[in-house]
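fyi for ur records
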Amino acid sequence: MEVQINKEYIAIECCECGTIFAISLVFRNHLRETKQDFYCPNGHCQAFKESLSDILKKDIENKDSEIRTLELTIKELEKPKLKRKKKTTKK
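which gave:
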């Protein structure tokens, strides 16, 4: 009897022993979302501590914070220019 299973797999390297093994993409995505532990073939515990969406959310938050800081800096730098322009127009 022959059985065909069409699934996509991804290779993972154990962070303890370096063994390379494969898991399905569906299972990998599940592990990333749930942050559940899983094991390499040699029994070493593995886990995705942050999901991809967590990483991207943090990146967006950091960039938003940088933008707000730069906007405030620009506003502060523009204040003296506005005051100088007002003084020169009064003359």
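The chain has two domains: 9-47, 58-91. thats all i got for now
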